[in-house]
Every structure is written in C-alpha cells, then in structure tokens.
Fold each of these.
Amino acid sequence: MNLGRLLKQRAAEGRPVRVGVIGAGKFSSMFLAQARTTPGLHLLGLADLSVERAEKALAATGWDLKTQAANSFDDALKTGRTFITDDADKLIAANGLDVVVDITGSPAAAIRHTLAAIALGRHVVNVTVEADVLAGPLLAERARKAGVVYALAYGDQPALVCEMVDWAEACGFRVVSAGKGTKYLPQYVRSTPATVWDHYGLTAEQAAAAGMNSQMFNSFLDGTKSSIEMASISNATGLKAPRDGLAFPPCGADDLPRMLIPRADGGVLEETGLVEVVSSLARDGKQVPRDLRWGVYVVFEAGSDDARAAYTRRSFREYGMITDKSGRYSALYRPYHMIGLELGISVAAAALRNEPTGTPDAFRSDVAAVAKKALAPGEMLDGEGGYTVWGKIMRAEDSLARRALPIGLAHKVKLTKPVAEGAIVSWDDVAIAEDETVRVRREMERRFAPKKAAAA
C-alpha cells in the first residue's frame, strides 16, 4: 500500500529508485514495458549476454534507443537514461544502483549475481525461482545481515501466494492450504521437449515463430515448475509440502474450500497447512468449470466449533463467501497473475520500505530430480523440463535423508550409476564438480537443515 504515492514523491524530489535488470527475455520485457511509464523508477541499466537482444527487448516495449540509451553508467546516472551492457558484474557495481533484478533463469548465474549485489549493499529481487529453491534461505540470511532485501518477484505466483498467506494470517485466519492453478494431467510427467507442443495444441513451427522455448514450457507441463514454485512458497511461509509430492487435484475456484482441506473434513489434503497446485483439467481431460489455470489461491478457516468461531462462520454466510458444508472453511483467489507487468511492486517495496515481497526464512521444502525414464551410467542429465528428469517437491528432511539431487543441479551432470524410471536421483548417482553453486547449496544445507535431518 502507498507504493504509488511514495514513487511519485521520489519522482517529485528528483530521487528515483534506480534499478538494474539482468536478462532480456519475456519476463524482463514485461517489466520493461511498465518501467518506462512508472513515476519515480529509473532503469539505470539492462544487462544481457547479447546486447542486441537487450536492445530489441527495449525497442519492442516502447523505448526509444536514440534518446533513451546512455553511453555509460555514469551517463545514465546523470541523464536518467539507460545503459545497455553484456557485463552483469559492471551493472551490479554501477554507482547509484538501488535494486538488482535477476531474470536469467540460471540458478548458478542468479546465485552469483545475488551474492555480488548483497556484498555491494544492493537490494535483490530474484525472479529465478530455481535459485531460490536451491539456496534461498542462505541468500536471504546474507541479505538480512547486510541490511538489504532479498525478495521473491511480485507478479510471479510465489510472491502473490505469499501475499495472500500473509493477508490471511494478519486477519487472524488459520491458513489451511495455498498455491496456484495449472494445466496438468498425470501423463504429463513423461512429457519431453519433443512432445510438449502436442499438449499445448501447437506445432513446433508455430512455437518457434512465437519464440517459445520447448524445454521451459515443458517444465510448466511436467510439474517441475509447479514443484519449484510451491517449494519457494513453503520456505517463505511455513506451509509444508505434501509427503507424496503434489497431487494436482482437478478443482475450480468455487470448490477450493470444499476440496483443499483435510481429508478428515471431506477434502483431499493429508493434513492442514500445505502447499498444493490445482489442475484446470479433470482426469478425463475435460475443462474444469471456473478453473484457476492462471491464478493463485489461499484456503483458510474460521476456527474450531466454539462460540467465537461461530461468529466468524456466520459472517462468512452473511457476506456471501463460498464455504464447505460446515461453513468453517473459505477461500480467496485471484484468477490471473501478470508476471513481469507487476514486478515493479517488488522493486518499490524493497527500495522504499525495505520490505521483501516474500522471502525464505527456513529450509522446509526441496525439489528433487526424478528419472523420467530408465537412465544408464554415462548419460547426461539435462535438467528442468528436459528429456531425463522432472522435479518433485519433497519435505527438506526427507530430501536430505535420501541424499536427493536438487533439480537445480541436475543439468549437464553425468550419471555414474543406473537410475530406474520414477526413482529419485541421488548425489551418489552422479559425478558433480564442486563449483560455487554446489558450495553455496552445501552451506545452505548445513546451516538450515531441519533438526530431524541434521540429527540423522
């Protein structure tokens, strides 16, 4: 609240919030389209491995490169223009920068950029959720100690769900479940980049013409991205992962308070306080009425059957809220998320209120690499959305006990042992180099391992 007013005030004072963006893909372009028209916000720099790609992203989103492109970071600082570079490190170190936004999609790059930004006293908004699940609790702790913010990206589902959970708790409700919607059927778990477009009703030629990446879209389809996002929410809110992974129950908006509640009360959850993703498709492939494919939700309860909770349940009825049969459970949902168009909320909240739009405070959930097919020694894992593995959410203590290989590290890694289809890939099954990303992950595990896992 009041972020728009605060931004206008900064604009009037001639002290805009200066932001640097790393990555010039679709998510970035959506932010660029809005940053151009947001008062009090100055895009100091845009970094991408391809300067040409960065220039095209700016031009496509309404920027006039002839008048708005700067010759250097110092020039950008003086003139209010934007410097385009292929050097992310120089962007992070630029004078006057307030907030760094990583939109690279690479866990290794995002972790490196985040640590560099924190060391220089920059706030960080991390769009690369894979990096957050791999090492977020450690990154957030480093940021807190440095007096800066490490935030999930508003507009993406994890930050939006964190906001809804926070709303429910601030209202005094007990959160029963929270998550998002997606298009999912059980057979999608075996989908590969070669089959993904069949499930979207597209040809490979149509997808290529639209600039759609088959491996990225396959991660959305095979459940990996959903697991990553739910693990991020879990680590930021205190909600737990389902013991057997996400169930993807078919469920529309009106059925949330009847289905996304514990089985003991007629729902589908093993217990209260879980993350879960609802499918927009019934198991026979038919569309679910009033589906939440693009949305997010939170289910909450009025309380136990006593006089105080009875008043809240009565209020639910009086104000037309949809509930379960008992009137105890209700839900709030948002039918859409606007991705990069909303990212400025995170930037403004960090710079103006020193407040993250969701941030991990514990290692509660992890995402393990699971074999999509029988894998043989010598095969190379190809990571999220690929041909070899998919990502399954697990509780952190279970993941550590099984020495599960995180999906964020299962890319360009060679197997040394056979892994059966459907089996979790272990650290012991691969040859993996001790690079910076692995060291950061190992440190996160040591510092934030749940007590049961640490004791084991």
Note: Residues 158-184+223-337 form one domain.
Amino acid sequence: MEDIVVRAENITKEYKLYNSEMDRLKEAFHPFKKCYHKKFYALKNVSFEIKKGEKIGIIGSNGAGKSTLLKILTDVLNQTSGTLETKGNVAALLELGAGFNPDYTGMENIKLNATLMGIPQNQLEEITEKIIDFADIGDFINQPVKSYSSGMFVRLAFATQIFSDPDILIVDEALSVGDIRFQQKCYRAMDQLMKNKTVILVTHDTAAVTRFCKRVIWLNHGEKMFDGNTIEGLHKYQEYILHQISDDKSTFGTHDYDDMLDGDVEVERDERKESIEVPDVVPGVYNKGNGDADIYQCGLFNDKYEIIDVLEPGMKVHCIIRIDFKKTAARPIFGLSIRDRLGNEVIGINTETLGVKLESASGKVEYDMSFTVPPLNKGEFSVAMAVANGYQDDHVQLCWLDDALVFSVPRREFDIPGLIYINRGNVKEYVVKEN
C-alpha cells in the first residue's frame, strides 16, 4: 500500500462575522448569550488523501478557500473542526514575506530557515551555496530582504524551501511573480529535486497545472467540487467559470451589437453549392456555453473538401462547423484553439482577431474557417471550438466544445523536441581573431 502523507477528514474553518465591534462586545457580555454574528465557512467538510510522490493542483476562483486550506496544512491556521494528519517535513511558499525577517539579509534568512527546517550544521554550507546559485540575485544576498523586489524575494524564498529537502512542498501563487525564465527553472527543479516528493501547487495557471499535476482538487466557496484527473477537473472548472460569466452578463441585451467595429470585414451568407458531409460531434464532448447555440457537426478538410485527420505544416485546412442557434445572436463570434496532448494551448484564432464580422445568426448556420497549419512538431493535437455573441472583450459564450476534433502531425526528417519544428538551416564557421 502506498504511503499516505496527507490525510484530511471533514476539515471545516468557520469565521464569525460581525457588523461592528460593538456587536462583538454585546455578544461576549450578553447574559443570555444572544448571537450577534453570522457564520462564514471558509472551508466546509473538505476531505482528501494525498499519497507520497503525488503532484496535486488545487484550483478555484478567488475566495474558494484555497489559501485557507494551505494555511491549515502548514499549521498557520487551526481548523474549527475535522482532523488533519501530515507525514514528514512540510515546506511552504505561500505569501510573500511569510517566514522571512525583512530586516535580515538574504544570507541570514537562509541560515535561519535552514535551522528551523532542522538541517544539520555540516550540510549547511553546501546547501547555502546551492540556494545562492539557484536564486541568482547577485550581491543582494548580503542586503536586507526588505530592499528586495518581489521577484528577487520569491527567487530566494523558493530556493530556500526546495533545497531544504522537504517531504512535502506547498507552492501558492507566489511563483507567478517571477519572470518566465525563473518560472521554468522552478518547474524543472520540482521535476528533478522533488521527483519522489509530494508537491501541492495552487495556481490560476491551467497550463502549469496541466504540465505538472496529474490530479486536481477544485474548491468552490469552501466546498470540494472535484477531486481526480487533471484534464477532467479543468474542464469542469472552466465550464463553471463560463456559466458564471454568462450569468454576470444578464444585461447583455442592452448593448447594440449590430454596430460594426472599424475595420470589420462583413461576411455575406451564401448557400454552398457542393454537398459536403460533415461528421457529427463525437459523443462525450459537452457544450460548456449557456446553451443558446449548439455545435452539432464539425470537421477538418483539405482544399478538395476531403476530410482529414493528419495535417502537414504549411497545408491549407478548412475547419467547418454547423451550428444550431436556439436564439438570435446579433453579433456572433466563431473561434478555435489548437492544444497539445497535455492541454497546453498552441494557438488560438477567432473571427474578431481576423477582423471578420459575421452576420446576425439564427437557426442552422455553417461556418468555414480556413487557415494554414503552423510548423507544428510531430504529435497528437486537439481542436477546441466556441461560438460567442458580442465583441472580443465583451461577449457571452453560447457554445464551447473542448477536444471537439483531434489530428496528428507526422514525424519529419529529424526527430527534435518541442512543439514547433524548425526546418534545416545553414551554419557558417568563422575564425575568431584575437586582438
């Protein structure tokens, strides 16, 4: 049986909310214990188990209870009820400033944290060198931490925690502060140094969760909504967010979307002369929009309108979708995105970014978007597609299908890593003359 390093059972965190400090005093001294507060549950009966070596992503919108849960896991907060068991040393990179004394230098904070983590004195010098090298903040290592920028701070904080060799590493949104090079450096470190350790990652970056975590826990208003496969969890979370956006735009009809934007190219609707068989949407692909439109058929075609599922870079491809508009869309937008096998978005386009204005739509309509396949490397890819109503920065999702289509790109002359394939180039050799 695999080791369970974190076991949470019915974790609840309750806060008492008062309208004023006077109400707090009234409740404290009331002879009959009259209640003047309202109960707020930051967490409510949250249960889960984490096995040794798992990489877990915790997702949820602001106020979902993610930070509260992490603070309980690190003993910063105590739960109101429920039980929590952790096995091994826990290192946490939560809020900027937590665990560091701002008046101490970076070097002094390294030694302080190493002592608190129980690192033996004979290992301290070696670990300190690794931390300084990884953080790469130069002479600032001997300056007070309060003089650091947020990026420098998180570099030192992350390096200090990961080189303390914890059994469980908890990382909050702090990594988003660093630049892209440091973020990539952090994920490589978590891949290598934390290979057999447990990592709990809290972030709004779905690409990071997809790349690093095989399991996600989705929290919403303090309750656990999902615990399982990353891709499935992110789909459910994105579906919820899309519905929330649609609900927030209940006054959508007050906008005049019949007005054209400057630079729009209006598309005239026509009847296709040739008959094209477009496949039905495969079972199991669900509509994540508000239901006012339904994409019921879609496919990828070459220039002869033959259906294809193997795409060559540079090939002209037609993506044809057929939509049933349940309600009239005054200003429809059609778009698609190509994703790799991990769900990372490679490219996304829509009619707005192409400068194309579609006519108002109702009933059954077909869209034919053509594009040239970018220089993708070999592999399997999926196509997500959506139809909205409105403008690029102000719209309602009518229908959103993840993984509606799949295609592959064959291996080229050389087997190289990465998403993009670079064709053979030229190299010239020169002799460098010494001055």
Note: The two ends are 67 Å apart (CA to CA).
Amino acid sequence: MVILGIDPGLAQTGWGVVGVETQRFKRVASGVVRTKAGEVTEERIHYIANEIGVVAQTYNVDIISMEDIFFARNVSSALTVAKVIGAIIQQISSQNLPIRLFTPLQIKLAVTGYGTAEKHQVQEMVRLLLKLENLPRPDHVADSLAAAICLAHNLGSESRLKR
C-alpha cells in the first residue's frame, strides 16, 4: 500500500509518500509545496491543491492521510488552513482517492505512543520507523510522514479487528 501524508498550511504544505508492507514502512518521497505571502490567497490555495493532486498521481497512492485542525490560537490562520484542507479534499476526491483526517494528538499517539509528544520526539520516531539516516526536514515533511504512519497503524488495527 502507498500512503500520501499531508501537513496542510498556506505558506508550506508538507507531503510524504510512505510505502507500507506488513507494518514495515519505507519513505518513497517527500517534499513541501511552498507559496509566497504576497500572492492572492485563493490562488495559493488552488496551487497547493493542484500540486498535491500531482503528487498523488505521480506516486500512484492508494489513500491519503491529512492532519486536521484540532485547536487554534489564531482564528484567522486556522480558517485559512481549513480552506487549504477543503481544497485538498476536493482535489483528492475528484481523483477518486480515499482520504482520512487525523488530529495532531492522534498522529502523535500513533507515532510515539504519547499524544502530547514534543515535535523532536515525533521527528525522531519518524526517522526510526522509516529507517532514515537523518531527521526529516523541514518540520512539515516530518509531520506529513507522521500522518502517513498514523494511517498505516490505524488501517492495521482496523484489519485486525475485522478478523
């Protein structure tokens, strides 16, 4: 199975493609979709969604996992990220791909076993689980890979429960 993990944001949207085979994970590719602050917000959102769609097609992903908004201190930035999430959902749905959203707490719990883990703990566990030489950078890439791993764990649990 090939999972595309997404960490949505307006300035930077991280993405990570993870191959999963019997609970063994392999980083296939990862990157960041960047937009510039001076551009029209709607155009930035459209660009991000299109680029994520291209990534999904390029790596022939089976399913998408995306970090959802759980808590926001800055309401205006949360609304913008929600728009990015909606545009990505629309793009992925138009490609007939399933998508699952997880809160940061769920992702941290799945990757580290601790729902309030620090960012560096998540990065280190992602590095270990994917057998990477270095911590995945930037943070958005690490978070996207963690989202993919979270979905893999979740699907594994669902499969075991069905048996």
Note: The radius of gyration is 15 Å.
